[in-house]
Structures are given as C-alpha cells and as structure tokens.
Specification:
Protein name: HhH-GPD domain-containing protein
Number of helices: 15
Number of strands: 9
CATH class of the domain at 20-115: Alpha Beta
GO molecular function: catalytic activity
Order of helices and strands: EEEHEEEEHHHHHEEHHHHHHHHH
Shape: globular
Strand order of the largest sheet: 3-7-6-5-4
GO biological process, one term: base-excision repair
Domain HhH-GPD: 156-312
CATH topology of the domain at 20-115: TATA-Binding Protein
Structural class: alpha+beta
CATH architecture of the domain at 20-115: 2-Layer Sandwich
Strand content: 15-25%
Radius of gyration: 20 Å
InterPro entries: DNA_glycosylase, HhH-GPD_domain
C-alpha cells in the first residue's frame, strides 16, 4: 500500500513522493556463531556514522532498510543474548530465496559469524585499547550496505565535511530512493544501480549538487549493474577490481573493499580518522597514512581493521554524530522530520 505525501519542492521541480507501507512478512532468528563477546548495540549503531535516514536506533532496537533483489524490505532487530531476532517487513512478493538472501546478508552485515577472540587477545596487551575495550567489547564490524551502496558512501565521503556528505546523501536518497514506513518508523531505502542508470552526470551535478563526484556516479551505476554480486564476492583482489572504475583511486577502493568484504586486516583512512589514530597510536597530531597503517598492523597483525574501528568509535562515543533515539517522542519527531525532508541545495565541491 502506498500513500502520497507532499515533501515540498525539489530544486527546479515539485514532485509527490510515495510513502510505502511495509507489512510484516517474516521473523528470522540469527545466532551469533563467531567466538568472542557480542555487543548488539555497538554492532548495529556506530557513534561515528552520519545520519542517512536509512536506519534508526534506540538503546535496545535497530531499524534498517535493505534492497533484496527488487524488493524493498525493512528490518527491526533486537538481541536476546547471542541470538539476533529480525522482524522482516515488505510490500512485495517475499519468497523463500529472499528469506535465505536476507538471512545471509544480515549475518554478514553485522559480523555474527566474526571471530573476535584473537583481536581481543591482542588488544588486551595494548594500553591505548583499554578504554575502547571496556566500553565497546563485543562490537563487530558492520556494513549493511551492499557493494554498490558502500561505493556511493565512499564517494560522498571524499574530501568533505560530514555536513556536506549528509547533504549529498539526502539529495540522492530523496530524488532516487524510496520512503517507507514499518513497525512505527519511517526510513529511506537505497536506489539500485539500474534505477539511476538513466541519470546523467549533469543532473547529478546540478540537481543533486555532487560537484566533481557527479562524473563518477554514472560509472558506478554502470559497473555494478553489469557486475554480478557473486563475481564481486569471489574476486581475489577487490581493491584492484574496484579501481577498474574510472575515477576510483586507492583510498576509495580501500574503503569499498574493506567494508564490503569485511576485511578485518584492512582499514580505510580518511583525514579525520587518520588524525584520531595518529593521536592514539603515535602520540602525534597527524601522521602519514603509511605510518598509521604500519603501526596498526604492527600492533594488531591480521586485525588492523577491527582495531581502527574500535579506536575511532571510542573517540565519538560521548559525542555521537547521530545520537540514539528514545522511544516515543524522539521516534515521533524522527518520523515527522524524515517525511518532511526535501533535497537541500549546497555548495558543490
């Protein structure tokens, strides 16, 4: 069922956005099979992550949208000890293969089969990790995005502030994504590569205000539309594979590969987290990426990605970019704000 709502004029146009009501379709019970402690809150919610409208969190519940093939799905998750219970909502034809796909994706996205025991053993001997371990122990890497979606996020994070990234993300999701409601929450859902394949670089630049990134997004759409997910999953070197896309350099490829492949040994450095890690690991205000990566791998061989994650999330823990919602008032305000949001003009860069 869809209900037309007015979200206000877009740049140079005015358009109705359909709010899709998703109905309950399934319940998945997903065991945490990886060794080591499990922290559901900090696995699902990362203090450093900026607001996208794709997910929302309270201290005990998380909501997230997923594209499963052509389906738009919403998932509400909570944990009971080492069991994650996911309630699935959709307005499409939900089939057994969708159930299997979503169960695999949730398990991989939230690291439910990830072995933390070796990292915990290494980190216990490193003084700078004492605070992160006390506050975040059991946090697993999380990447709900698929290969295409994380590529878009990496592109939008290039060389800009969080505020600018948030604006560009909002513009894209408002123009090309879906607006859905399920289980009392309103969220955005991603667009697929095929759904933006017709959009030109000029439109991305002028309407969505992507600046120089406008030339790269159509290349992403074409690449991921024609490159099956199974082939990407099986690729021997994802960083090299992604650098086949014109405009994708080592930094963006590293971000895409480390998140999408859940590589615990790899950590994509941007200017912000590089400075955090330089302070924590090298007692310096900043350092070259090579020096930071060398120290990470020296202290946490095979687990540099997990170590970098713990240190960065600990830095934001007391001042999160997107604070947790409280049930009731915060959720109502969230729903109202998201349903009324429009794409914002911003200075291209």
């Amino acid at each position: 069922m869809t209900t037309a709502i007015r979200t206000g004029p877009k740049p140079n146009q005015e358009q109705d956005v359909s709010l899709r009501q998703l109905d309950h379709a399934d319940t998945l019970e997903l065991p945490v099979t990886g060794d080591g402690p499990f922290n559901f809150l900090h696995t699902a919610w990362k203090p450093s992550h900026y607001v996208t409208g794709l997910e929302a969190h309270t201290a005990s519940r998380s909501w997230r949208t997923f594209r499963v093939d052509d389906l738009v799905t919403g998932v509400r998750m909570h944990a009971e000890n080492r069991l994650v219970i996911a309630e699935v909502y959709t307005d499409g034809d939900y089939k057994p293969e969708h159930r299997d796909h979503l169960a695999r994706r949730l398990t991989a996205s939230y690291g439910l089969d990830e072995d933390l025991s070796q990292f915990i053993e290494l980190a216990t001997d490193v003084p700078t990790m004492r605070g992160p371990l006390e506050s975040l122990s059991g946090m697993r890497q999380s990447c709900p995005e698929d290969h295409f979606e994380i590529a878009v996020v990496a592109l939008l994070l290039q060389h800009v502030t969080v505020a600018r990234t948030t604006q560009m993300t909002r513009n894209l999701l408002t123009h090309y994504g879906q607006l859905v409601r399920f289980d009392g929450i309103t969220l955005r859902a991603w667009f697929t590569p095929a759904e933006i394949a017709h959009v030109s670089a000029e439109i991305f630049k002028e309407q969505d205000r992507l600046g120089y990134r406008a030339k790269t997004l159509p290349r992403f759409a074409a690449f991921f539309r024609d490159y099956p997910a199974e082939e990407l999953t099986a690729a021997h070197d994802l960083e090299q594979t992604f650098q086949q896309i014109k405009g994708v350099g080592p930094y963006t490829a590293a971000i895409m590969a480390s998140h999408a492949s859940r590589d615990t040994a790899s950590f994509g450095l941007d200017v912000w987290n590089r400075k955090i890690l330089a302070r924590r690991l090298l007692s310096a205000d900043d350092a070259a990426p090579e020096a930071v990566n060398h120290r990470l791998n020296e202290l946490f061989p095979g687990h540099a990605g997990t170590a970098g994650l713990y240190l960065v999330e600990y830095e934001y823990l007391n001042a999160p970019v997107a604070p947790l919602l409280t049930p009731g008032g915060d959720v109502d305000a969230w729903n109202e704000a998201l349903a009324g949001v429009v794409a914002e003009p911003c200075n291209p860069r």
